[in-house]
Design goal:
The chain is an alpha/beta fold and about 400 residues long. The protein contains 18 helices and eight strands.
Length: about 400
């Protein structure tokens, strides 16, 4: 009886093994699996990196980190921050002004980068031996706009770093992590799906954007703000632009059907992208963040995260300077003295932050009350960036 049962089990196991082998050798199984594996390898290759959408948030943060790492000027000062720093610091002017002092700066500032991605950029670049000073361009209102979760744009940006490092920092930042998010970080076939889809559906558009990106690349710096567009095209000198109709362009200008704005001499002074940016920024500026319910818990969370960031900078032996930038007159409630009081209280808890570590340039010069120096309510244009950078450089002399 025992022998019979053993033989029966043995026969069942043999059938199972044969069925399993047949399943794995079936082309309907291994061809799709092989395709996914090859696609995953392709998406992780330098070849795909070269055709990735050039102005995507993910590509942008990757390029910035790579550019600074390969910089020939061996920077001893590194800027970090959001688009305010990305557009507002002219590295050409800054380095020229401080050449005699031996200061060589590069920028790790990145558009749309929330604190976690600024922190990840620092982690990636802090090993550069020449770096001695970190200048953080801080957005004063951010403590009130912080969310426990991470938005889609910043998730795609964080995906460009080591998954282990990113997930570890996300845990420290108290960002909820689920299985879907883990798959997003570990599988490029998931995280790059939209970018790959865009490339396949619009190959000519991708080629054009790649060509433009290569043509505007700068030899020494990843980005230098050269925009001549001015917020004053739409702004009334006597009123706040946000909340008004942005189609009310300044007298003496005319608007075409495509949204481009021209002077009488047919000089282009704005376009539809500029108008949309002004609109989006105004939507952000108009919010009364300090009175939003649970804003105090958001503020507490932000400063807990910022302490992790600043502590690491200090523990790595880098000198930390915090700069508060200039906004246009339309956004002054975002950097008011009330807002700054929370920052002062935070700095008081950090022994390595003294008054000389803080550079307050919210209102650097009366010229910054004019809309001609701004691209939109929060960001400087090319001319404004040059003037702001000159004023900032004077603090290092």
């Amino acid at each position: 009886m025992f022998f019979f049962c053993f033989s029966k089990n043995e026969k069942t196991n043999t059938v199972y093994v044969m069925e399993k082998k047949r399943f794995y050798t079936d082309s309907r199984f291994y061809i799709p699996v092989l395709f996914v594996l090859l696609l995953e390898l392709f998406l992780r290759s330098s070849l795909y990196e070269s055709i990735q959408k050039p102005r995507s948030s993910a590509k942008n943060i990757k390029n910035i980190v790579s550019f600074v790492k390969k910089s020939k000027i061996q920077p001893n000062l590194l800027f970090l921050g959001t688009s305010v720093a990305f557009e507002g610091i002219n590295l050409q002017v800054f380095n020229q002004r401080l050449q005699a002092k031996g200061i060589r700066a590069q920028s790790g500032a990145c558009e749309s980068a929330l604190l976690i991605n600024q922190h990840l950029i620092y982690k990636e670049l802090k090993s550069i031996r020449s770096i001695q000073t970190i200048v953080h361009i801080a957005d004063p209102i951010f403590p009130w706009t912080t969310s426990k979760k991470i938005n889609a744009i910043n998730l795609s940006m964080a995906n460009e770093f080591s998954p282990i490092r990113t997930l570890s920092l996300m845990q420290e930042y108290q960002i909820p992590i689920d299985s879907t998010m883990k798959r997003f970080f570990y599988f490029r076939t998931i995280s790059y799906r939209k970018d790959l889809q865009d490339a396949i559906l619009s190959p000519l558009q991708r080629i054009k954007s790649l060509t433009k990106a290569r043509n505007r690349s700068h030899a020494e710096f990843y980005h230098v703000n050269q925009s001549s567009f001015q917020l004053s095209v739409y702004a009334n000198p006597k009123s706040n632009i946000c909340g008004a109709s942005l189609r009310n362009i300044r007298k003496g200008l005319h608007l075409d059907l495509q949204g481009n704005v021209f002077t009488k001499e047919n000089l282009k002074v704005s376009d539809s992208y500029h108008l949309n940016t002004v609109n989006r920024t105004c939507s952000f500026v108009q919010q009364n963040y300090t009175s939003i319910p649970n804003s105090s818990s958001a503020k507490k969370l932000f400063f807990a995260r910022l302490k992790l960031f600043y502590d690491e900078i200090h523990q790595s032996g880098h000198t930390l300077l915090v700069v508060f930038p200039a906004y246009s007159r339309h956004a002054h409630k975002l950097n008011s003295n009330f807002v700054m009081q929370a920052w002062s209280e935070f700095f008081a808890t950090l022994p390595y932050i003294q008054s000389e570590n803080i550079i307050d340039l919210r209102f650097p010069h009366k010229e910054f009350l004019q809309d001609d120096l701004f691209y939109d309510p929060l960001h400087l244009n090319g001319e404004g960036a040059i003037l702001f950078t000159k004023i900032l450089a004077e603090r290092f002399l």
